[in-house]
């Protein structure tokens, strides 16, 4: 008999991360990782009060000891043998749109530290749990899903601090897909190409219809769909954009 | 009130096309297009006897008058105002793996005639029906989906007659996605990267587990998933491959 | 001793084709292919009167018998054993920027006939001569170079009739590069991404500096450079654009 | 009158970096950056004794103060107003081919620190000098060239520590090309796809002809060619591989 599998979501801000966590919480206990408690507490409360199970752990994905500590807490909560059905990497560093020669070093390196090194730490921490999920014959292939952006495939002027990390993360996801697919773990990369419809973007694109923004619930459905694909039909990459988007 | 919408599938051989048609037949009357009646008759019979509705029409997608004739027959059957919920282009010409200097002209041009020109004819014939589907407020955004292959993104030695048509078809799908997305039609391209598990490939990859081949039912699920994406979250392209595939 | 090698240029309009022909004419006798004599005659005259050697042959690259006839004439002129140092495919069909549903069938198919099928005929006709160039120990590796465009890698709305042929041609060039590189023929694809500075574009981009357009002589230098790369260092693809171009 | 412009090469190991430095030293005084004096001293001596001018500076590109110190030394040597005609980033971190779960954190981060952060520091340090080169009306557009690899466009299993940095560097180069092209600086990325023929690879690919490896002198010629392209015809990316390479 398989023990209960969990889902882990890193980067649970108010948009994609929260929606994805809610979606996966309908099936799995979810672990919410964010740097600050205020990012995960309301969501954990919401999920727990709706009959799901969620715990939050303050974690800086850019810091390996912080990520190791999170894994330790997960094991304390769910047992040393806990397996994962899904691990979602949705974290992003604080990049800046800026003329390159005015870009501070710390903005460049911290963006890279979250996207690239954070992706590395998160993958090294969760893949052993996902492989446990394979052993424990999870219903759906255990899934490691990375959130990408337009800047994952296109590197525009003034956007070097964002694109470098995102390209690195996409490279990581492709290498992992090739290594861990044959071991039964489904690694995917999602190119989110457009503005997501969240509180922060409320004032953006005024005059455009509501459908001009990506729905976070729609994105969560797409992540869930990727998760349910059988081992015969794995998708590495999908792009997502509003129908009216110019691209 | 919206009238009944249909799904149209071109290229209903024994693999992807048939599975996709069965999947969409659970919701829509389906029109099966193939050059020869023996390709669609057993499938039409099967769908009709299972409570669905299917008609087959002998059609050469490479020939514009044949495609126009198919549209005429569709209108005779379903009414002049018929709208489409989905149109799936799954046809492929008879390419040949061959040293380039030994490749006969007619192999090259007939492959191109099906993949590229056939894709053009099929799109021009079905887009007006898909736009009718938009007007008639179809439940899911009307979808035009093209079947691609590894050779749609990689053009290997000896494969020029296959890759040229497939790259052209991918270009067509991208241009149409950009033009018709804003009009409410969801245009997608699916990169099928691996061997599909059908009768014809039964003897291939002996010694490998069954999971080393793509499941046609899995592919059909993926097409259906693309079809059900809302206008806020359109995917243009997904790749599909067995977990154990090397790529 | 090696006999004299020739260069063959298909599509010698007033821009890239003519400049490339002039450049290669400084080293090789050149064969100019175009549908109409008025496209090659002034250029042939110019080259011949400047001490070079050029002949023009009326050729429709979309028509295999026309291309075979051109090869026949080349052999009559230069001998049955003639080898080629370079073959440049610079032809383009008459596409149209158009809403897809208003695009006439003949525009779509004729664009494809030149770019894709024309590329096929030209390659089948010239590769045997290029392989002769290898045998005859040409100074530089015999080169087959295809002219691409922005639309070779990006398929925009309303541009389906151009992009399909250009993507097909790019696929052809990649497959040929992989097959014939090991045989000593250098196959390249050039993505010309911008407006070329020729008579026809004189009125375009008014108010922009002259440097906002690609120089045809510059393009010719790039083709020549590709031609001179040694077998240890072949480039398949380069992109070319004005420094000020937005991309 | 323009003052003398320099070329700066980071990463002058025994292969590409040294060849590129030799090539550019024929025209410009060159600055050789490497972590250890033994990497640049013999080369500096060789260039100086052959009538060129070279200075070496011990520099860790991953460390911003080390890079700033190098710029300081360059100004002491060549004057505060010194402009650069070329800056070549050829450094690579010490990656490891390894199962992902056995990859040490420091290998991952140090590879990234050189390729991505090193690329950032080098670009921020040299772009002001390259822009000075533009002001001083350099004969050829000042050029910032990055050395990429197969792993810059393809991220294979077990290669995550190399590919992440290389993809990030490619993203950086694309963003800079778009920002600084319009300012007259030519930014390029070279995908070196194959084994380079140097001392270290002498025992590799035994039984293959010498031409199966990339010539470092050939690569240097390609960099020089990119450098000489006029502002009307900039190439962002070229790939380089031996004619016999499988790809």
TrEMBL record, chains A, B, C, D:
Segment forming the signal sequence: none
Pfam family, one: adh_short
InterPro entries, alphabetized: NAD(P)-bd_dom_sf, SDR_fam
Sequence intervals crossing the membrane: none
Alphabetized PANTHER family for the sequence: OXIDOREDUCTASE, SHORT CHAIN DEHYDROGENASE/REDUCTASE FAMILY (AFU_ORTHOLOGUE AFUA_5G14000), OXIDOREDUCTASE, SHORT CHAIN DEHYDROGENASE_REDUCTASE FAMILY (AFU_ORTHOLOGUE AFUA_5G14000)
Protein name in the entry: NAD(P)-binding protein
Species, as recorded: Sporormia fimetaria CBS 119925
């Amino acid at each position: 008999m398989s023990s209960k599998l969990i889902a882990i979501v890193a980067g649970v801000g108010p948009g994609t991360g929260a929606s994805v966590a809610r979606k996966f919480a309908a099936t799995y206990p979810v672990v919410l990782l964010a740097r600050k408690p205020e990012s995960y507490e309301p969501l954990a409360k919401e999920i727990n009060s709706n009959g799901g199970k969620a715990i939050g752990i303050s974690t800086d994905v850019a810091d390996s000891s912080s990520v190791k500590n999170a894994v330790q807490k997960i094991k304390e909560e769910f047992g040393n043998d806990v397996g994962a059905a899904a691990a979602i990497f949705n974290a992003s560093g604080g990049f800046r749109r800026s003329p390159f020669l005015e870009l501070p070093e710390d903005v460049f390196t911290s963006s890279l530290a979250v996207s690239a090194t954070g992706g590395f730490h998160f993958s090294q921490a969760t893949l052993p749990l996902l492989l446990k999920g394979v052993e424990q014959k999870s219903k759906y292939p255990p899934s490691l899903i990375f959130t990408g952006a337009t800047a994952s495939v296109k590197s525009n002027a003034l956007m070097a601090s964002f694109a470098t990390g995102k390209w690195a993360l996409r490279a990581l996801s492709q290498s992992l897909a090739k290594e861990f697919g044959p071991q039964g773990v489904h690694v995917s990369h999602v190119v989110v190409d457009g503005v997501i419809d969240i509180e922060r973007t409320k004032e953006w694109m005024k005059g455009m219809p509501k459908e001009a923004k990506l729905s976070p619930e729609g994105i969560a459905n797409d992540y869930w769909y990727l998760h349910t694909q059988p081992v015969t039909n794995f998708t590495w990459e999908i792009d997502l954009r509003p129908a009216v988007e110019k691209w």
